[in-house]
Specification:
Strand content: 15-25%
Distance between the termini: 37 Å
Structural class: alpha/beta
Number of strands: 24
Length: about 725
């Protein structure tokens, strides 16, 4: 593997300095890594537009034009410098001791470049990279400009266009004119790695390394899926012969990424399901039947389906590892209770682990209510449990008299010993660290791990669930219990605050409670906490004692203070709870009918939906009021409009992923994808992901350990470090 592994500095035109830049900016260190760095779009170099024909809503335009005027603007659009075809027209920069003009680029707010191609004039605008562009933007010079046109102040301009020399073959017909455009940075451009240089480097790397490229996908899969060879794909992704060749190359490379991503996850699942023992639970038991028979409501079809899937797992003789997704209020707790009662009916204990004390207490209250007719002993263990309570609980767990234990991370302490743990349920599992969950899985019975059910109220798009949790079986509760009243979602501007406060007072007078949530972003935590404190003071002024009681909760408080204030609100002793997103998961207050979200444009769709789910839990009509800032982006406005148009969390999650990408769905620091995707997109390539997963399943069904000779290339590819994914489902 000589050429593929050769250090990038030895590629013609690179050298040590540029190599260091490529490594630091693009994480490209070898010829092989460079040829797997793909263009993100293509320019048809044979297609040019006249300025007179350019429309503001075009996807992109490419024009060849001469620079007429360059202007550097300072604050409030003051002109620092202006030059035209006749020379410098204005220059207010200071001169140095030698009489040379000193241009202070850090004071420049934007650069405007007026260009013309004889059919009309157009403006190119630069807010960044002004110094670099200024040095080459000389009036009278012609360049090729490429970018997205837009309308501003009655004229069409392009902000931050790509700027290249006019091609020598401009206008020449014949041959492929598609040219790849690669992601770049200011440092790369300043280091001389321009678009043209990158294209030359890619050509040299392909000439050197392409003959060494080996097939990663077996022949039988290539034929079934109609895939082009890897060498053809790499050549045509960088230098496509035509649109058809480009489409074939993209299809091959996208399938490859998604197939190996699924293989890396599913092989763990297949090895586990074919080889690992699980606790056999063939019975349902009296406790299950008594609970089910005494329910004052019917389960939804989705709940019944999910319980059947869980029961099937628990009877299989293999360890269950299942993710249960359900929108806020869809009835996941009921599924957890009935699953725990199946374990109890087979002589085993269950534990339900929640991320916060408040959520653990709520689960305990709900579960106790459902267990009334069964005689099953249930206990609550949290950090607040007294020494005497702990002793009693530890004894009950060890002698088996406690059938279901609910708690926080206190459950994973070493002195918590179970008689026969058969089922571990983790709620909002992404909020627990891998090591914390591993401790829970390790509390085995006779060396056999418990069945595992992880639950989340964060709707995850199906394509992302297949990827993040490809090693888990996924169940979805996709319908809400009948009778739940829709939550009316409204967006208002800052100037409507007086009306908002009047509405809140009316709701409080009717006996309801109100949440007010402020954003808290890690990067600007200090400023956000100041906004929260200021907001709290404003609310207290508008809702004074003794008629109103206002509580405040945020992450800087001690757990004791936080729990006290949350509990005061949950118990109805406070009318309003002002908080950051710590209440996103875990506060169930059926009496709360209003959720006010401040600076709502700063939240992601999934997070807004989670917050909205904190109300609408009682019998009264509920409201979610999105308070937006006066100036917000088009994308932010689209998010708020979507929030007002639907309550379906899965629809919102799909849209959120399309708008924001899959890496940070919640607006919190959630782990991204287990393998970095270079060309495939979970938001756009859902159908191909389905095909890749189905093929991976067929391969593993026929050859679970990948021992067949025809699968040798798959094994070789999966040995690469990037596929070394931790098995999050079975950590013991």
């Amino acid at each position: 593997m000589g050429e593929l592994a050769t250090d990038i500095q030895f590629l013609p035109g690179v050298g040590p300095k540029r190599a260091a830049l490529l490594k630091s900016e693009l994480e490209v260190s070898t010829f092989g890594e460079l040829i797997h760095f793909y263009p993100f779009r293509y320019i048809d170099r044979g297609s040019y537009q006249k300025i007179a024909e350019v429309e503001a809503d075009a996807a992109y335009v490419q024009i060849i034009a001469k620079i007429l005027k360059v202007t550097l603007y300072g604050p409030s659009s003051s002109i620092f410098y202006q030059a035209g075809l006749g020379g410098v027209e204005k220059n207010s920069f200071p001169v140095d001791s030698k009489g040379q003009q000193v241009i202070k680029f850090n004071a420049v707010k934007r650069m405007s470049v007026i260009v013309s191609d004889g059919t009309g004039e157009m403006e190119m605008v630069f807010f960044k990279g002004v110094k670099w562009n200024f040095t080459k933007m000389v009036p009278g010079q012609s360049f090729l400009f490429f970018g997205k046109p837009q309308a501003f102040n009655g004229r069409v301009n392009i902000v931050h266009p790509d700027v290249d020399p006019v091609p020598q073959d401009a206008g020449r017909q014949g041959g492929s004119t598609l040219t790849g455009v690669y992601n770049s940075t200011e440092k790369l451009k300043n280091g001389g790695i321009t678009a043209k240089v990158m294209t030359k480097m890619m050509s040299a790397a392909l000439n050197a390394a392409l003959p060494e490229v080996q097939e990663t996908i077996p022949d039988y899969i290539m034929k079934q899926m109609g895939l082009v060879p890897m060498r053809y794909a790499l050549k045509n992704i960088h230098f496509p012969q035509d649109m058809n060749a480009l489409a074939k190359a993209q299809h091959r490379l996208k399938f490859e990424e998604l197939f190996f991503l699924q293989m890396s996850l599913l092989k763990q699942k297949y090895i586990r399901s074919h080889g690992s023992r699980g606790i056999m639970m063939p019975k349902v038991g009296d406790a299950f039947n008594k609970c089910y028979g005494s329910l004052p409501f019917d389960l939804t079809g989705a709940q019944k389906r999910v319980i059947k899937e869980i029961r099937s797992d628990m009877m299989s003789g293999h360890q269950m590892n299942r993710l249960l997704q359900g929108d806020v209020g869809s009835g996941k707790t009921m599924v957890a209770v009935l699953s725990s009662l199946i374990a109890y009916g087979n002589g085993y204990q269950s534990c339900i682990m929640a991320p916060t004390e408040v959520l653990a207490q709520q689960h305990f209250a709900n579960v106790k209510k459902y267990l009334g007719s069964t005689g099953v002993e249930c206990a609550l263990l949290t950090g607040s449990s007294t020494a005497a309570e702990r002793r009693e609980i530890h004894k009950g767990l060890e002698d088996g008299s406690i059938g279901i234990i609910i708690g926080t991370h206190a459950l994973i302490e070493d002195n918590v010993i179970f008689a026969k743990l058969g089922l571990a349920i983790v709620d909002e599992q992404h909020r627990f660290g891998v090591e914390q969950r591993a401790k829970l899985w390790a509390k085995t019975t006779d060396g056999v791990p418990p069945h595992v059910l992880v639950m989340t109220a964060t709707p995850i798009p199906r394509t992302l669930a297949m990827t993040l949790y490809g090693d888990l079986d996924v169940s979805v509760i996709d319908e809400l219990p009948p009778g739940r009243k829709p939550i009316e979602t409204i967006q208002i501007g800052q100037r409507k605050r007086g009306g908002l406060y009047s509405f809140m007072k009316k709701e409080i007078a009717a006996g309801r409670q109100v949440f007010i949530v402020y954003p808290l972003i890690f990067e600007r935590e200090k400023l956000d906490l100041q906004n929260l404190e200021q907001g709290y003071e404003d609310v207290v002024k508008a809702f004074p004692l003794p008629d109103y009681k206002v509580a405040i909760v945020h992450g800087q408080q001690t757990n004791e203070v936080k729990n006290f204030n949350m509990s005061a609100f949950a118990a109805g002793r406070a009318h309003i709870l002002v908080s950051t997103t710590v209440i996103e998961v875990g506060v169930d207050v059926p009496n709360a009918s209003v959720m006010v979200i401040e600076s709502a444009q700063r939240f992601g769709l999934s997070q807004l939906h989670q917050l909205r789910g904190r109300v609408g839990r009682g019998s009264e009509k509920s409201y979610c009021i999105l308070v937006k800032d006066d100036k917000i982006s088009k994308e932010s406005q689209k998010r708020l409009d979507l929030m007002c148009s639907t309550e379906n969390g899965f629809v919102l999650a799909e849209e959120d992923m399309k708008m924001r990408g899959p890496g940070d769905l919640e607006g919190t620091q959630q782990s991204g994808l287990p393998v970095t995707l270079s060309i495939a997109s979970l938001a756009r390539d859902g159908l191909l992901l389905n095909e890749a997963k189905a093929m991976a399943e067929r391969v593993l069904e026929a050859d679970p350990l990948l021992q067949a000779p025809e699968n040798a290339s798959i094994v070789a590819e999966l040995r690469k470090a990037k596929y070394n994914i931790k098995d999050y489902s079975k950590i013991s």
